[in-house]
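= Tokenised fold =
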Amino acid sequence: MSVIKFQGVDFSYPASLVPVFSNLSFTADETWKIGLVGANGSGKTTLFKILCGEEKCGGKVISSAHFCRFPQNVNVREPVAALMGMCPEADDWQFMRELSLLGFKEDILGRPLSSLSGGERTKAMLAALFCSGGFPLIDEPTDSLDLAGRRRLASYLKDKSGYIVASHDRAFLNACTDHTLFLSKGKAEVICGNYSVWKGERDAYLASAAAEKRRLEGEAERLYAAARRTKDWAVNAERAKFGIQKSGLKADKGFVSASAARVMKRSVSAAARRTQAAENAKRLAAELPQQSAKLTFPPHICRRQYVLSLNNADIFLQGKKLFGGLTFCVRPGERVAVTGSNGCGKSTLLKAVVALAGGMPNDAFDLSGATAEGVSGAEGLKVSYVSQNCEDVCGTPSQYAAMWKIEEAAFKGMLAKLGFASADWSRDMSLLSTGQRKKAALARSMLTSAALYVWDEPFNYLDVDARELIEAAVLSSSPAMLFVEHDEEFVNRVASRVLKACT
């Protein structure tokens, strides 16, 4: 059996005070289909770089495999056929076979990579990766794929063996992995099973840890109270020797025997032991993992029957028709998902709705000339919008909160629940990862009291924990929403209704 083994691996980036990995140890078989999960910044990409030899680390990494990492840097002006240079040991027919399994026809070989969509380029590079003869390390392959593309890719990977895929898409991981590698706080955990199996085991562990935490905290409080009672008794006994009880009567010093003094001394010692035991119980409780925090939306009362209604509507931009014959509505508390293939206009539709509602400050798009016929409930509608890539997220969290007129403490509190570290409070968020910027935009949106929340692929770049926190908040608060999202789990759990957009 060939294995991948990490033994006591340590790694830190030069500019960081916190190590990415500290004594990281795990063992995996090279035939496993491994799903790599963890919060943004937990070290998933760093793990891939270490396996490929791009980063040096302390400790030992043992494996006989030759690792190949996706994404690769390729010249997009080259034709697709140039990708065969990545797999010199494979015949042309093998590369073509992989492309066909991913839905491509032979005429794609002559097309430049730049002519492909992001999703098509992803699949073409994966075909080359699996022809290379190395052990594939696949980093976030679903980000540019619509739902149909994700399902096809999962089916493709399911028929392979021996790879590690880092992803935050729960349905995708369930469909194509048989083991899960979880990274958290520089440590690793490997379990047999896909994401749902790992999540079930983790939830059970967290529930057990929460119960034990409550028990230890109760035990600590009981011991503290017992220590206080014992100490009070000893103090009163000491006072009695010198006749300073509340009665004012003077004690007979000779009456306080040596035996009573020893009892008092033991009581003081018992109080100290109980205090120490209480502190130990409190420390153990603090070391146990915390259950997930909770997020909420602000309450909003809408007295309209429809938040937004389109009846055979035509939407124009500068006199040019963008959409024609649109008919749908969003009721208060209803969450409408817009689905469809890449490029069918889903994002443009969301932007048009926001523009018709009067827009928002710092919009990341320009549809100022948008008009419509057959739309009701849009003008003057308070909308909270989140774009795909959050280009408008900039400044420190304090500056961003002030710009959007939201409470700074509440904003930082929500960011902390979503995984922001205290070191991020003083940083310009435009320099953070796309995932962190997306968290900031979503936190801002969720702190805004709006009649309609318009979110464009809110889960792009977000880790699983953040996805589940936001998902739980949406389900518990039931805001009116119009959104585009390719995360199948989120759509299935959250959407009240699905609208399919067609080209």
User: Anything to note?
Assistant: Residues 195-241 form the longest helix (47 residues). The two ends are 50 Å apart (CA to CA). The chain has three domains: 3-201, 203-287, 308-500.
